[in-house]
Design goal:
This protein is mainly β. It is 11% helix and 41% strand.
């Protein structure tokens, strides 16, 4: 889910701003989603960020993550790890996951790609704007403020079924 070859909903701008960055020490550690055979290791990053290592049997990826609160919901904004040079023409995109932590487990849901794709194809564009990239990912193009306002109005039906991660270390 975090870095799958399936199409994703990405954003050019982050879902967080300096005032909304949150921190949850309880996210640190090693986690496993047994259903998808995915392991995620979350460590403390620089200044209220997380270093996230995603491991699936066929791929691995590293991200920088920022937790943000929008209304009563929490979102984890993931982008390619900071400090790596991707070249002048590559733009790091943001993958925004809605998360709910429940003690020793947490649930992560991405924005529903099929729903947004259908909305975009019919000309009903999200308020902040959207387009498709070469891989057919939906790319949200609006500002951080527009993205946060739009996320504030999303219902559960606007997100995919959650992946459930359970702690694998104590």
């Amino acid at each position: 889910m975090l870095a799958s070859s399936a199409c994703l909903v990405l954003s050019l701008q982050p879902a967080y701003d300096q005032e909304s960055i949150a921190w949850d020490e309880g996210l640190l550690g090693q986690w496993r989603d047994a259903e998808d055979n995915v392991e995620v290791t979350i460590d403390r990053g620089e200044w209220r960020s997380y270093r996230v290592h995603y491991k699936h049997p066929v791929e691995e990826a590293d991200f920088t993550g920022h937790l943000t609160a929008i209304g009563d919901a929490h979102f984890l904004d993931l982008m390619p790890s900071r400090g790596l040079d991707y070249g002048a023409v590559l733009i790091p995109a943001h993958l925004v996951l809605k998360i709910d932590r429940d003690g020793e487990r947490w649930h992560a849901s991405a924005l529903d790609y099929d729903l947004l794709r259908a909305t975009r194809r019919t000309g009903r564009v999200p308020p902040q704007g959207a387009t498709f990239d070469q891989r057919q990912n939906v790319v949200l193009t609006g500002s951080t403020t527009a993205l946060r306002n739009w996320l504030r109005t999303r219902a559960e039906k606007d997100f995919s079924a959650p992946a459930t991660f359970e702690r694998i270390n104590r």
